[in-house]
Write the structure tokens for this entry.
Amino acid sequence: QSLEPLPMSGPDFGALGEEAELVEVEPEVKQEILENKDVVVQHVHFDGLGRTKDDIIMYEICDVFKAKNLIDVMRKSHEAREKLLRLGIFRQVEVLIDTCQGDDALPNGLDVTFEVAELRRLTGSYNTMVGNNEGSMVLGLKFPNLFGRAEKVTFQFSYGTKETSYGLSFFKPQPGNFERNFSVNLYKVTGQFPWSSLRETDRGVSTEFNFPIWKTNHTLKWEGVWRELGCLARTASFSVREESGHSLKSSLSHAMVIDSRNSSILPRRGALLKINQELAGYTGGDVSFLKEDFEFQLNKQLLWDSVFSASLWGGMLIPIGDKPSSIADRQATFKSFSLFSNKSFLNCFQFYLGGPTSVRGFSMYSIGPQSEGDYLGGEAYWAGGLHLYTPLPFRPGRGGFGDLFRTHFFLNAGNLCNLNYGDGPKAHLQKLAEYIRWSYGAGIVLRLGNIARLELNYCFPMGVQSGDRICDGVQFGAGIRFL
Amino acid sequence: AAEPWPENAALYQQLKEEQILLSDNASSLAVQAFLQMCNLPVRVVCRANAEYMSPSGKVPFIHVGNQVVSELGPIVQFVKAKGHSLSDGLDEVQKAEMKAYMELVNNMLLTAELYLQWCDDVTVEEITHPRYGSPYPWPLNRILSYQKQWEIRRKMKAIGWAGKSLEQVLEDVDQCCQALSQRLGTQPYFFNKHPTELDALVFGHLFTILTTQLTSDELCEKVKNYSNLIAFCRCIEQQYFEGHDKDSSSSATSRAAKRSLLR
């Protein structure tokens, strides 16, 4: 079984999620008195700034001055600390609140001091990864806070027994508005897809802008990729062999994410909506298509610590012009962006179906159009899942290790096919509604940190069509994004 | 026992009008001639990515049933396994001779063609780069073209041709043609009265050289010095290619061929 690539972990101070601990002073018995006491924040000091420029610091801490009473000061300082940490330029941030000393000190004046330790100019990491019959060593170099305003340059090099990839990324946030940022990436990535007997090497450059609008997060991206496809084995089907060669894709894409879940792995409540579109061909290149896809997830907590979750995925790939869509257009955009920018590993849309991370009970990406055993993906798909997560029976290891595990009962369904775009939408819906594959089963889920999860399920695949490969019985899966 | 040859057998090569180069066209024509001589029909399919589709990276390749075989040598073996052969009538000495001459053509003529295409700066600029990258958009056309050039030049260096000048290469072509001409003599084919794969190979290369317009006529002139070779090409063309679709070849007699392979 192949694993989806796990993102690189590192001293990244991204969203802390539900693991955030509150810092500072425990409110004491005298809390009521303190709350009523008016204070004025007179000075805010910073210890330990080196190359960081002042202006970006100012944005993050300006709220502290607005605090009116002591509890407010503590809260605003804590928020400022979080904001400073998420810039990714400090190794640690400590806050000290003290009364003001000195000549101009007011009786209710306070001094807030932030003691920070900047990250070194260059940090490196070295990992080894073992994947699908391949081992590789991964070397990462990061230059945090390059010019003093939280710019970051990352370089990653992966040397494997079969393939070599590398990538260079430059990231710059807007001072004062960390969620608005842009990054430029240069990369060469290779991937092997045994379910299609296909090898793909992508060399590309991309630039993307992220910005929030109200509660949603938007990403605008331009990407230029030189794609090279080849057969993985001499026994590859002729349909795949016909796709070998080079193509150039130049595309603009837009993605919107609304995420109100409390966690991305095993959330207890909240919803997620992701809508992605990509238009290729109008900015150069020889590949023209319009790709639309979406992902929706809803979670609700029920009695006795159990969670009910529903999810729906769907997408459509419309080739523009005479040329049919290429198998590379349907492949997973698993690129190493996931390791550079803060959240694009979530933008992993693909037009393949089946496997432990999508419709369970079927082999990896082994549903839908195929030729001589090589799966070609499809131009339209939908997939849905209903899950019930409960704590392990009898709750072993409660309060500790046992909390990482959940039992889950699932019902998955989906379909993947090619559409004849000449027919109308009614015909399309009809085609997607016939030959639905579905499965049900139960299993155990293990949560790995805040990023990934492992599943071990017992599955009953149903609605199997000829050509699909199933994996009935025990199926193991590891990854980031599950149906 | 001969196995049935499927009807939808196909031969893949690059695009004829805009893309294919001298050396690839010669190789493709050689295979087409060979299959014609064996009386095995095959249709020619032109694809821009034929070179990358091929399992060995070289054109042409044939798709027969669900098997894919590329290059003349393996194709001859494959066809033999199916029960068709042109060289069965030869004795051991003749077979060895045939192999030797085929090696000569591959080492001399084919390498000379590659040299001319990829190492002669004028030809590279005016003909090779524009043609090789023509199916691809900018900047991919330049990248692929330079990548291939670098690869061929590296190979030339490995076999010691990098230091040769164009005159020396043309001299080698002349010597090769002389050897072929002497062996051919006044016979219709190289061995007895029946064509073999050697005939197909020689025809493929010589015919392509004669009918391809390059930046200069020097290469063509070297071949034209030997009238029996020209007659040989004309004879094979008439016997195996005329009467089929006009696309597969053009008359060797018309020098300013409207259908010249390179512009």
